[in-house]
Request: fold
Amino acid sequence: MKVELDLSKRPDAAPAPKSLAGMSLPALKAEMETLGVPTKQAGMRAKQIRRWAHHMGCRDFMEMTDVAKDLRVQLSDAYNLDRPAVTDHQVSVDGTQKWLVQFQPGVEGESVFIPDVSKSGALCVSSQVGCTLNCTFCHTGTQKLVRNLTAQEIVSQIMIARDQIEEWPSSMENRRLTNIVFMGMGEPLYNLDNVAEAIDTISDGHGIAIGRRRITVSTAGVAPKIPELGARTGAMLAISLHAVRDDLRDEIVPINRKYDLQTLFEAIRAYPELNNSKRVTFEYVMLKGVNDSLAEARDLVKLLSGVPAKINLIPFNPWPGSPYECSDWETIEAFAEVVNRAGYASPIRTPRGRDIFAACGQLRSESVKKSAAEKRREALA
Ligand code: SAH
Reply:
């Protein structure tokens, strides 16, 4: 379903003042100093703005009643609290919502809100526009990398969702947006500095207040960055595994040519604080006749031995021109049973938002497609 957008509030052509919405605390403090706030007070002012902007969802400096009046005026002149423009918004028959966010002209990315029956809900955010990875079953992989998103741009996706589902202030009870998953466009571990800064802002209890255990970062397997992710963010780890043999993984998740399964699993085992209450999620897309045999299910169990793990089986979501089919339902269930019997939770992920192309791997924005030469170059990089 298409939703009519109110575009009347979009900034006109004049360069807009800088937005403070979604900025990290250190960045806010630096802005206060630039504005001429004495260094001794800059930290305190940054904290006040953080609470109003990120906890209350405030969009007008004049409402920040504990900030001195002249500073409020000064802030209003120099800055705003705008979010990036939403250029498309769709709602699926199953309640999933997708926003196309314009970070700057020509730089657009998608975020997807997936409400759950149990009243919790996850927002799937993008960390890059486009992607360099070329996983053969993923639509985003057909799109060139445009650029990394900044920490502020990552956080702004959450602020947009909170605006739209009307969940300010952050502390409200029974909220529907309870979890953040870095499973949108891009490879978060190729943008780790910004992802880590964004996670600091998201998990800040005086701000957006979504705890680190409710934030999951998914990677296709940038092995050297995996332990660092854990040490810097305390987030939950998800691995896009999809194959249990190097020859097949080399083909469908080409980053495997750089970091093979053994290297990947060494890095996973070094992820800090893994135990039965902090498990690694392994994502496994079910591709008919490619990776869905029972022998592969048994090999998967062997590969995971000793790793506190849960396995998410993802029915393949088709996209225009995609070269695969989704495994049959009986095959997926039989695969899940082998994994379950070995003692691992292995929920089959219900595809959400397929009708609006919001499901896993279907995200892309209208941007330049990769040429074959670019794909080869990236695979060899
Ligand atoms: N680059 C990161 C973050 C993207 S997460 C990563 O690879 O983990 C998106 C998830 O959806 C990944 O597990 C990805 O492999 C999976 N996916 C991609 N295309 C898909 C498709 N067509 N159907 C189902 N899952 C898909």
